[in-house]
Amino acid sequence: MAANLATEIVSAGGRRGNRRKWVTVVRTPVGAAATVALSALLVLAVIAPILWTDWANRTDTAQMLHGPSSAHWAGTDNLGRDILARVLVATRLSVELALLATLIMVGVGLVLGTLGVLFGRRVGRVVAAVINIAVAFPGLLLALFFAVIFGIGSKGAVLAIGFAGAPGFARLVQTLVAGVEQRDFVLAARVAGVNRFRILVRHVLPNVGEALIVNATIGAGAALLAFAGLSFLGLGVQPSDYDWGQLLGNGLTGIFEHPVAALAPGIAVVLAGLAFNFFGEAMAKSIGVTTTIGKLRLPVVKPAGEGAIPAKDGATDDDTVLTVRDLRVSFPSAHGAITPVRGVSFGMTRGETVGVVGESGSGKSLTALAVAQLIERPARVTAAELNFLGTDLSSGATRADQDLLGVHFSMVFQDPMTSMNPTLRVGGQLAEVARRHGGLSRTEARDRAVDRLDAVQIPEPERRAGQYPHEFSGGMRQRAMIGMGLMGDPALIVADEPTTALDVTVQSRVLQLLESIRRERNVALLLISHDISVVRQVCDRVLVMYAGQIVEDLPTADLHSAARHPYTRALISVVPDMHTALDEPLAVIPGRAPDPASFPAGCAFASRCPLATERCRAEMPPLETDAAGRRVACWHADASAASGSSGASAPEQMEAAR
Fold first, then answer.
1. From start to end of 497-546, where are the E strands?
2. Which helix (H) or strand (E) covers residue 631, if one does?
3. C-alpha dist (Å) from residue 228 to 223, 291, 592
């Protein structure tokens, strides 16, 4: 299926591109210095206990509390033990405990931050509220609180610091995930019936992984400092073990006589913290990250209303692909429900191409998403009937519905760059559909993916299947998305503005490809566009939407000669052609579409219509069907058709009326 905060990945260009970005970390002065420092710290943590543990534990009462000397560079403690050796040996425990605390922070943060994706938006809102409350408290205060709960000692301190840092990391995860789960490739995976956990692991987390790694690295530095603070206060590592925080606390007792005893572990803490933080910042700059330290498929409720839908001439029940009656989509607000889609009804048969046109905000894409079962809570979807290939989709989420949509419903989204997962190879993304619904093996699914890429006219499909989306041009990505839809056996392809981001030449090729697929496979095609000239090229029938309603439904061949709604005629008139005067301003439709939060009582187009009367402003016209099967919702449809045939364009009529 063809499917910021604080932190955003600027360019996810595949694994090879990612490797190049990671290499650039060491090419900057700060990055190189941080890499050397962090590497030295980790090496020291491994070898120091092996080389200097005996020296660090050797007591010499004759050398107690001596200052720096050639024998003891940082002096000795109250038992005559070498302070520098103890600082070096304490590196392992200090770093080890800090990394354990970071691991807990990341693990708990990931779980909390992704609960909304796994269990839905309601759970996500509750978890977000808890996280926001926890983040409001200072981290050290939370760490002290958890230290009291978990008890004094290394284990309690690790748990305390890990859980204290988890809320901040969880909020970061929530924000990053929220930015990715709305991408088209995630929506496509949902239509394909991929379960929530697989969507999270395969499609969401890989796209935020770099940012999480960077912030976890910086978090490790913060955890190291926090752990040293707890040990300094006597809540962390307890004798006979020791870390930098404990050594710092011991050194402060005699700081006026022997300041180096406190200075040595203090310097170690600062340098280690800087190594983690600078390395994280260097990664952030190289990768393109700024640092800071769910979905439910809705059941469709059936209202009492009914609506008549004209069928294609000669169509039988076996030919019917999609039936939609009285479809409504509403969103809650502080002032009541907002309903941007209001009573949409239409039907489609096999091999039929239907275009949906209208200005931005008219409800075109929202209607398609509702049909595809991609509207999420708290939105509410209702319909008198929502039937796809004889299956009622209004009964709620079932595995059978997911399989049906995954195999027979294909959706091509608007932006080809965001419609594919940038971290997965193109062939693997196509193969997922075949493996999920077709039961094919990995090899069989890849072979089919190569075949589908070849079917949509992508050159060298075998090689291209192993590439990442960023290695494709815009037109090739769009064709690959169409190929993804052909991995199953589609009966309906919904193309939502599929050519908006493409130049005119590529646009023509994509439209020709869609038309050839429709013709060869007898597939129904629903083409959504704001450009009525694009729809005229490939569609049999046109649905004109305005303010969340269908205001006219007529054959494409009748657009110029028989369009009866003033809005339809206005859309036609504003499209420039070879006869448009170059020395005059381009025609426009005056005014603007009404706000969905405050639709008027009557016709929504009345404020912009030259034919509007008081009846238009007070009563909403019904969508009536004439003898030819055309539908129009206008009190003055016949007058509009007559004025259109007189030669005056709709914008000219509107301007004259003003």
1. 524-529, 541-546
2. strand 631-632
3. 8, 23, 62
Q: How many domains is the chain built from?
A: 2
Q: Distance between CA atoms of 461 and 529, rounded to whole angstroms?
A: 29
Write down the residue that tokens 């041009």 correspond to.
Answer: 473
Estimate to the nearest angstrom the gap between the alpha carbon of 610 and the chain centroid: 43
> 259 is in which domain, residue-wise?
27-55+68-287
pLDDT at 6: 34
Please check whether residue 354 lies inside any domain of the structure.
no
d(CA 486, CA 154): 57
**pTM, two decimal places:** 0.61
Q: How many other CB atoms sit within 10 Å of the CB of residue 88?
A: 23
| DSSP code at position 297 | P
Instruction: List 349's β-bridge partners, or say none.
Output: 320
Q: What is the CATH classification number for the domain harbouring 179? A: 1.10.3720.10
**Strand 524-529 with 541-546, pairing:** unpaired
115 found inside a domain: yes
Number of other CB atoms surrounding residue 113 within 10 Å:
27
Nearest to 171 by CA among 253, 233, 238, 115: 115
H/E segment holding residue 478: helix 474-485
Two structure tokens written together for 211: 């940012």
Question: What's the confidence (pLDDT) of residue 298?
Answer: 39
DSSP 129-198: HHHHHHHTS-HHHHHHHHHHHH-SSHHHHHHHHHHHHHHHHHHHHHHHHHHHTTSHHHHHHHHTT--HHH
Please report, for the chain, how many H helices and E strands are present, in that order. 24, 13
Helices 566-573, 637-645: crossing angle, 10 deg rounding: 30
Given a contact cutoff of 8 angstroms between Cβ atoms, the answer to whether 20 and 52 are in contact is no
Token digits of residue 561: 């000669």
* Domain membership flag for residue 611: yes
CB neighbourhood size of 131 (10 A): 22
- Nearest C-alpha neighbor of 643 from the set 632, 657, 626: 657
Closest by CA to 529, choosing from 516, 517, 540, 542, is: 542
- Rounded Cα distance between 216 and 103, Å, is 9
* Residue 636: exposure state from Cβ atoms within 10 A (0-12, 13-18, ≥19): buried
Last residue of a domain, one of 256, 287, 318: 287
Q: Is residue 429 part of a domain?
A: no
Pairwise CA distance, residues 11 & 4, whole Å: 14
* Averages of pLDDT over each 10 residues, the chain, 658 residues: 33 45 67 87 93 88 81 82 90 92 93 87 85 83 83 89 91 87 74 76 84 86 88 86 88 76 88 87 64 40 44 58 92 84 92 91 89 81 89 70 78 74 86 76 88 86 90 83 80 84 74 84 89 85 93 91 89 80 79 86 90 91 88 84 51 47
Instruction: Confirm if 261 and 72 have CB atoms less than 8 A apart.
Output: no
- Give the list of residues 6+ apart from residue 307 with CB closer than 8 angstroms, or none: 325, 326, 343, 345, 384, 623
Q: What is the DSSP string of 560-580?
A: HHH--SHHHHHHHHTS--TTS
Measured at the alpha carbon of residue 31, what is the angle toward residues 29 and 34, in degrees to the nearest 5?
105
Domain boundary among 243, 262, 287: 287
Q: How far is CA 5 from CA 120, 176, 178, 536, in A?
A: 21, 8, 10, 42
Is residue 562 packed enough to be buried (19+ CB in 10 Å), middle (13-18) or exposed (0-12)? middle
What is the DSSP code (8-state) at residue 422?
A: T
